[in-house]
Amino acid sequence: MGSAHSWAWRPGRTLGNGRGALRREPPAQPHPGAPPLGSPATGSQLPPTPEEPTITYTVNCSILLTELPLLDRPAAAKAAGFDAVEFWWPFGTSVPTDVEVARFENAITDAGVQLTGLNFNAGDMPGGDRGLVSWPARSTEFQDNIDVVAGIGERLGCKAFNALYGNRIDGESAEQQDAIGAENLAAAAAGIARIGGTVLLEPVSGAPKYPLLKARDALDVIARVRKESGAENIKLLADFYHLAVNGDDVGAVIEKHAKDFGHIQIADNPGRGAPGTGQLPLGEWIARSRALGYEGYIGLEYQEPAETAFSWANLRV
Fold first, then answer.
1. Active site includes 301?
2. Residues spanned by the domain of 181
3. Residue-wise pLDDT tens digits, 16-45
4. CATH code at 114?
5. Among the options 100, 183, 301, 307, which is catalytic?
6. Does 202 participate in catalysis according to the annotation?
């Protein structure tokens, strides 16, 4: 960006917001195998380090560092230089045992990282499930999950909670599912409001029966929930990878809605790899979102071997 200086980026740290700082130093050498900045082979743009940086990254420990046991990943993220992590629902049920919850919470606190985001139970993700919110047969299960999620958030200081909407179910009408979805999102918003939290709603790709593909799809659901329940603490999760894969105009979404984003996540495309491995102008999109008022974390939700997961962070920018 518009600086004549060379910068070394220290991941997970931000200037002037109480979460650490970027230090201006001679730039670190890239890890072996890291893609060169501005490589014509990729055409991709890495996330920026501006003169007055305001970017704090959070590592999604459900998709990164998967070579390690789940509870070892927060410490690995810390060792890699990050101060913040996020997770998909890390338990097999909506209401895990107290022992299971304590082990998860201890892994976060012992690592010395901040939990910045947590998903509600989304069902069997490897099996194709994408949330319980609009699934009539599992509505009670979702509602039972709300207090557990809020409790973890309260104890760990987490304020953002992603509620995947759910696939269309054979034999159920879209109208019925959407009505139940709106009710459950309103219930989640009410439960999370007591700890000052925000419910996130996310368009996703790669799930043929998932109805929220573009930002407009999620925003329409959010508008319905707000109208019917008065809930204001429900916002769009803008995953730039998913939106781009689904053919959304990410630049236009940013221009219209960046100041209202509840969270941003990134991965490059094709491949859902690390920044710099594909074609997406992630740096440009992040910078523009910041310029238009987004002040939250940037979630790193991409697939990359642990050895090279953060190679891009040592590139000169």
1. yes
2. 57-314
3. 232 322 222 333 333 333 233 233 223 456
4. 3.20.20.150
5. 301
6. yes
